[in-house]
Write a structure and sequence with these properties.
Helix content of chain A: 25-40%
Number of strands of chain B: 15
Number of domains of chain B: 2
CATH architecture of the largest domain in chain B: 3-Layer(aba) Sandwich
CATH superfamily of the largest domain in chain B: Thiamin diphosphate (ThDP)-binding fold, Pyr/PP domains
Oligomer: heterodimer
Radius of gyration of chain A: 15 Å
Strand content of chain A: 15-25%
CATH superfamily of chain A: Pyruvate-ferredoxin oxidoreductase, PFOR, domain III
Largest sheet of chain B: 7 strands, mixed
Distance between the termini of chain A: 29 Å
Strand order of the largest sheet of chain B: 3-2-4-5-7-6-12
Chain lengths: 192, 417
Amino acid sequence: MFQIRIHGRGGQGVVSGAEMLSVAAFLEGRHAQAFPSFGSERMGAPVMAFCRIDDKEIRLREPVLEPDALIIQDQTLLHQVDLFNGLPARGYILLNSTKSLDELGLGGFVRGVQQYQVCTLPATELALKHVGRPVPNAALLGGFAAVTGVITLASVLAAIRQKFPPSVAEKNVAAATEAFELAVKTKDTVDA
Amino acid sequence: MLKQTEGSRAVAEAVALCRPQVICAYPITPQTHIVEGLGEMVKAGELVNCEFINVESEFAAMSVAIGASAAGARTYTATSSQGLLFMAEAVYNAAGLGLPIVMTIGNRAIGAPINIWNDHSDSMSMRDAGWIQLYAETNQEALDLHIQAFRLAEELSCPVMVCMDGFILTHAYERVDVPTQDQVDAFLPPYEPRQVLDPADPVSIGALVGPEAFTEVRYLAHHKQLRALGLIPQLAAAFNKEFGRNSGGLIRCYRTEDAETIVVALGSLNGTVQEVVDEMRARGVLIGSVSICSFRPFPLAASREALKHAKRVIVLEKCLAVGLGGIVSDGVRKSLSGIVLNGYTVIAGLGGRAITRASLTRLFEDAGRDELEEVTFLDLNADLVSHELERESKSRRTGPTAEAILRQIGTVASGIG
């Protein structure tokens, strides 16, 4: 089973992101479960959503406590929420930020004993460019496909097209595709 | 057709396939997505011959449902939490009049303190209103139970509540198999009311009944539920034949054959319990679990049969009977009358507190050593409770309890559980 925890703020499409991820996995014939952890249901409040992907039926209903991957939609949460709780060594972190890890003060932490596999993506900027709104979820899902390989970009794009009406979907598809390409390049650099 | 969709959407589609003629609803979290979905289907013309009535309150929702059902319409509504309490008088009336309304409960806690998250306090408060109560383990089962519920309700002329855990199921995206209209039509015949308000053939419904006959009318309501004990498994079997899935029934046993310890629970919690059962079985612990689907009528005989060989029974309850302990435990213990074993009531998951594998494993291990209190609160923060009790013992004007507790822990908006 592969478990994902998405952190963000109310209004950033955190819950939709987890739902689309589960649809992408479903389209690949896998079992998937996505569910939210609502806080106080207001714009800007920290929100979490979870997704589990497996090859058999998923019975577990507890929140994702030990994620294989974290998607962080808002870098300001770094100072507010215990984001990395339960993330095992070599766990994936996908962070929405235009800053480098060192600029965020995370370089030492990430390269330390846990050796997290980190990818930072300017997902908000990609969303503004393609969608016209600061909703980074679709772009980050494109990045997720590139970094983890758990699902394909094609499945992510198909899930986006299921979630949104055509005009909005295509804009999000463009954001996810560019994020995927950026993440692939970053990954090559890291691997090299 | 297999779909990856939200639990609420799956239920809305199932209800639509049952061809309801009147849907009345008032929005309340976490059931809102269900009636929103149905409202959209009616507006878009996907659900035909159905009137969707926006009402001004939950009391009106059930009152309109009573009127519609008495006029011979297949009638549906949904609610949660305070909404169910607000319609309470009409809930009793619907059952007392024998009207086969189907209502979804998106299970949520009851205030005060106000809390939007999941537990079973709402539906448990109406357990003796005369409605049949079915609890869904998964979104597939929630979908399936609605199709069974209309047939069950109409065969018996008795309303049915389908209870599904708020957020945990209502807001979860998972794989569901949505049947075809033909399949549902084959399983669920058109509604043939036993009583109907018809100007051409006038009757009155809702007579004043005095001491000379009230007991007999009430007995017949009980008798109806006892008949449901036979009908529920029959419908589950018929459903399996038509749709190829095990859904519903009175109870479901999981690895109980040689189990010394058996865990009993209602609803979505059973999935996590089964995961823990498998982990402990792999370590050689003789443990199993029982999922109660039909809570009203309570399956006394099935429960006794499933539990009678156990050394201990742990009842996990998402509702607290304040001043007593458990509600489900009462039925379970009654079913075990005359059988000597250790029974434990565990209150868990109140107001949306996460029930984790780690906590359940510790709990079941403690129970296995018979080191549990008769009534236990899973993951109770004893320090927090002691601090508040001590504070209250020191002065008189200590203020509201909930606010004091929140100040003490320092609210963390996104804390898990």
